[in-house]
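From the pipeline queue, job 12 of 40. The input is one protein chain; the requested action is below.

Action: predict structure.
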Amino acid sequence: MTLKPDHLSEEQRKILRAVALAYRRVMRAPAEPVLTRAEEARLAQKRQSEALAAATAEYRRLSPWATEDKFAVSGEVNRLIAAAINADPRWFWEGPDA
């Protein structure tokens, strides 16, 4: 089942928004100049890792359900990001950093 914001409580929606914004801020940061495709791929992978780390930190900060299980938290963070994108892709990628 795909997670959707309307499946969540008000508190969970606040967490979803904060997690999505933390991820988006890193992904939308200005890109470093690159010379090769390999360098571009490496930097894209680095940015993805940093974005997920920022989103995970925000989830752990806000969520009373966050456990010490890294895989469970990672899965939940990825589900929240996917739910935000699926709910409104335009807001997610182009909206303001509020």
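Job complete. The chain has a mean pLDDT of 88.
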